């Protein structure tokens, strides 16, 4: 794995080439934007997974968070959580993954949270892209209702459209691996 600065530079390059689309888009928030970040094209890419896992693990450690697990609202959070879990495999304090369903399951155990999550667990909510913060807030609410404790919120990309601030107003510490302005900057 490259050094942290080189890994971050490579992640930004991957996001620029694989995930940033230009045009006229309606975002999940309902807002229109000339840029869409389809993060899944990077978070589900083999190299992207490796980079996000290592950078996510480092960001969690740097923030001083000590989660038992990471996860968030499916589908955007899933590969981010899995990448971080994989990056910590074999470490003295592995971080496991979970996913928050958008709606309760109507069969089986009828869980809203699947995977490695238990009431009382300290967790980090992960996101691919934070725009308004609504998905992270929804995931955090479900986690709290289920007895979890949210240590912080980690996003791959902060669109810098007020989401970070909305999450911080709710008392959450927020970290992002990169910002939209970096993805729109010319390489020169």
Itemize the secondary structure elements and their pairings.
Blueprint: H1 4-19, E1 20-26, E2 32-37, H2 40-43, H3 46-63, E3 69-73, H4 77-88, E4 96-100, E5 113-115, E6 122-130, H5 134-145, E7 149-158, H6 163-169, E8 174-179, H7 180-184
Parallel strand pairs: 3-4, 3-6, 6-7, 7-8
Antiparallel strand pairs: 1-2, 4-5
Helix pairs in contact: 1-3, 3-4
Topology pattern, helix = H, strand = E: HEEHHEHEEEHEHEH
CATH class: Alpha Beta
Supply the helix-strand structural class. alpha/beta
CATH topology: Rossmann fold
Q: Kindly state the percentage of residues in helix.
A: 25-40%
Beta-strand level of the residues, as a percent range? 25-35%
Tally of distinct domains: 1
Q: Specify the biggest β-sheet.
A: 6 strands, mixed
Give the CA-based shape: globular
Taking pLDDT < 50 over at least 5 consecutive residues as the criterion, the unreliable ranges are none
Strand order of the largest sheet: 5-4-3-6-7-8
How many angstroms separate the termini? 25 Å
Work out the number of β strands. 8
What is the CATH architecture term? 3-Layer(aba) Sandwich
Main attributes of the structure:
6-stranded mixed beta sheet, 39% helix, alpha/beta, Rossmann fold, 188 residues, two-stranded antiparallel ribbon
What does this structure look like?
By secondary structure, the chain is of the alpha/beta class. It has a single domain, classed as Rossmann fold (3-Layer(aba) Sandwich). Helix content is 39%, strand content 27%. The protein contains 7 helices and 8 strands; from the N terminus they run H-E-E-H-H-E-H-E-E-E-H-E-H-E-H. The strands form 2 sheets. Strands 5-4-3-6-7-8 form a 6-stranded mixed β-sheet. Strand 1 and strand 2 form a beta hairpin. Helix 1 packs across helix 3. The radius of gyration is 16 Å and the shape is globular. The model has no long low-confidence stretch (mean pLDDT 95).
């Amino acid at each position: 794995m490259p050094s942290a600065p080189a890994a971050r530079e490579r992640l930004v390059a991957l996001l620029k080439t694989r995930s940033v689309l230009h045009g006229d888009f309606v975002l999940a928030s309902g807002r229109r934007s000339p840029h869409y970040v389809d993060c899944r094209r990077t978070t589900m890419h083999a190299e992207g997974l490796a980079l996000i896992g290592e950078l996510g693990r480092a960001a969690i450690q740097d923030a001083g968070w000590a989660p038992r697990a990471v996860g968030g609202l499916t589908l955007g959070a899933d590969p981010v959580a899995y990448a971080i879990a994989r990056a910590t495999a074999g470490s003295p304090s592995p971080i496991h993954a979970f996913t928050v369903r958008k709606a309760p399951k109507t069969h089986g155990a009828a869980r809203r949270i699947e995977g490695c999550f238990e009431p009382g667990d300290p967790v980090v909510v992960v996101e691919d892209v934070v725009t308004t913060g609504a998905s992270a807030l929804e995931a955090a609410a479900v986690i709290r209702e289920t007895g979890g404790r949210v240590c912080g919120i980690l996003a791959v990309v902060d669109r810098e459209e007020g989401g970070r601030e909305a999450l911080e107003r709710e008392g959450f510490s927020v970290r992002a691996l990169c910002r939209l302005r970096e993805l729109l900057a010319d390489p020169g």
